[in-house]
Every structure is written in structure tokens, then in C-alpha cells.
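Researcher: First entry.
Model:
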Amino acid sequence: MNLVSIRIITDDVSALASFYEQVTGGMAVHLNEHFAEVSTPSGTLAIGSTATVGLFGPGSARPADNRTAILEFLVDDVDLEYQKLQGWTTTFVNEPTTMPWGNRSLLFRDPDGNLVNLFTPVTAAAIEKFASYVR
């Protein structure tokens, strides 16, 4: 089994797709007005409209209601990414901080309030753990 994508449900697919284009530097592929995807080498962030929720079961997902999951992106230099983000987002949870498990991490929220973590491994163990993801 492989984790292929994470899907976020939103009231504004276009705005959230644009936000993640800026975060990742990638391009969103809009399959229609209700669905877009931003792909990275290791997985895809899918963005679905509330109009799609009924396909799964009425009321099965609600936009801007997540307080449990964190979307995590491995970056080359989290401090540099922090500087870039300061120009267009202000909903930071923390500044770059070295975590006890060896990653330097930056947490902020997307327009729907979902928590986003950009991180760079900085200890030998963390660097080794993520070696297969490094370009």
C-alpha cells in the first residue's frame, strides 16, 4: 500500500490551489472547477470543493474544520522559506525551530486554517532518515 495523496476540502478551490502553488513552487492542475492537484515528487495534495463532499456521503467532510492533521513538506532550507513566506502570509504558528527529533521546522496556517509544516532535517539521524527524499 502507498500513500498517494492527501485531500483538503474547501469552499474556494482556486484560492487554496494558488496558496499551495506559492508554498511548493509547483503548478496546480485544475481538473475542473471543483478539483485541483499540486504534485510533488513524493505525493500529491488534492484540493476538492465542498460540492464534491456529497460524492463520499453528505456531511462526511467540512471545509476549514481541521485541527488534527499537519501537512508537511521537506524543504532544502526552512529559514530561507520562512523569509520568502513573510512577504505574503502572516498566520505563522512559530518561527523556524529545531525540534527534539532533529528537524528544523516552521509551522503556519493556510487560508482555511489547515496547519502546514515546512521542515529541514538538521541532525545526522534526521538527515539519514530523509536521505531518499533529497534531490
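Researcher: Second entry.
Model:
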Amino acid sequence: MDQFTSPQIGLALRRLRKKHNLTQKDLANGICSQAEISKIESGTHSPTVDLLYALSIRLQVPLTIFLNQSSTLETIKIIDDELLTKFQNKKYDEIFQTSKKHIASLDKSEELRSLYSFYFHLSAFRLNKIDYRTCIIELQRLSNNYVKLYYSPKMLFRIKSSIATIYQENNNFRHSLKTYEDLLSLSFDSEELLVEKIRLLYNISKILVSLTQYERALNYVEEGIYLSLRFKDMSLLGQLFYQKGYVLEMSKSSLYKIKDAYQKSYTLFDILGMEEYKNILTTNNKVKILPYDKE
């Protein structure tokens, strides 16, 4: 029997289910098993045409909406990648003008408009057109909108992380910490979101160091290291070991433990060719490529 194979089908199904306030069990009742709904939503199983048709009836939407949403999500991803690249290159004015134009032309219910709104407010803040408090208020409204309309964990994560970063930049560490810790309640049920969780743990640890809460900072960074090793993700492992060394140093831990963490971070930076990070370690005498005394 024919099957829909787009990886976006599961995300579209989950969004529609959440929009109708249905549990996976509610949606599956009389159609298939809850486990099958879970597999479709996680992207590990492709639904048949008949199954997707039955689900569309339960959700009171046409079958084609799944395909339309898949196409829309791909378009959003392309635009997001373009805007993100410009943002990383600090082309704030270009982003601001482009976003402003599209916000005016798109319907309020469209997710693409919300994406442009995200970049619009961030670029406006970077251009000093709005202050940081106004930016945070607008981003909070936007996150509420995503919860109600789209159920997009990744985008919620990005919005909340941006809020936490802005708080941190303005030395409002306690609000930054609370925003970051609230994010831990999200469901990290995909490999992509797992990487974001590791980044989140790293950021929380940095905030806690600013608040001189070294024991808690160490706990978060240790969890980040554990997840990185468990799921074989090296993207932030060097930074995590560096952060561990720094936390141990600030808390006046043993010299052996401090050097061990810094040495591991240096090794990872060396493997990944991250010369700038290696230079920071050697310039500040954090690590020596020599045997060191044991505790």
C-alpha cells in the first residue's frame, strides 16, 4: 500500500493534534495504536494513505493539508537559514527591512509571519530601535503564539533562548537563569533538540558561575558532558570540559581535577581544529602539554 514518506508529516500531525487538544491516545482511538501515532510523530514510521486519511477525518482537515504543511515547513526552513546566516553576519538593517515588509503582507495566523517577527524584533534590538525590555516583551508574546498555534518545540527553544541571552547581556542573571531553566521542561525528543539541550546546560552553568553558585554550575556542566558522551556528540564537548575546568578553578578544587578538565578540552579543540580555543588555554596557562601531578 502507498505510503507518505515526507519526514515533515509527523511534525504536521503533531501540530494538528496539539491544536485540537488531543492526546496521542485520543487521536489513535479506533484507528490505530497509540504507539503508531508516536512513531509517526517522531519520524520513525511513515503512515499509509489509508491511515493518514482516517487521521485527517478525525482531525477534521483535508488529507492534502499534510502535504501542504510539509511544503510550507520546507519553505520556512529555507527562509530561516537565510535570515540566520545574515544575522550571524550582523546584517541587522537588511533583516529589519525585509522582515518589516513581509510582516505587513502576511496573515497573522501564518507561521512564516511569526518567523519574520522573531527576526524583526531581534534586529530592531541590535539596531537600538527598541530597548531590551521591549524586545523581551515582544518575544514572550511570540512564544505564547507558538504554543497556541504551532507547537514547535525548536522555535520555542530559540525564542526563549534569545530572551535568556538578552537578559544575560544586560546583567539580569536571575531572569536569564529562570528562562533557561524553564526550557528544561520542554520535550527533547529528537537528535536536533538534544544538541540544544546540551547547549542549554552549558549556558545555565555559565549563568550560575556569574551568580557564584559553583556546585550547581558543576552539576549542569557534568550533565552536559554525560549527554554528549552518551549520544556521541562532540559539538560542545570541548567547551563543556573547559567550563568544567573553569568552575573547578573558581571553586578552588584540586589542581589535578582542574588540569584534567582543561587537558581534555585542549585535546578536543585540537581534534576539531579549533585553534582559537586552544590559544586561549595555552595563553592563559590553563593547560600544559606535559604530564601533571596526580591528586
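Model: Note on the second entry: The radius of gyration is 22 Å.
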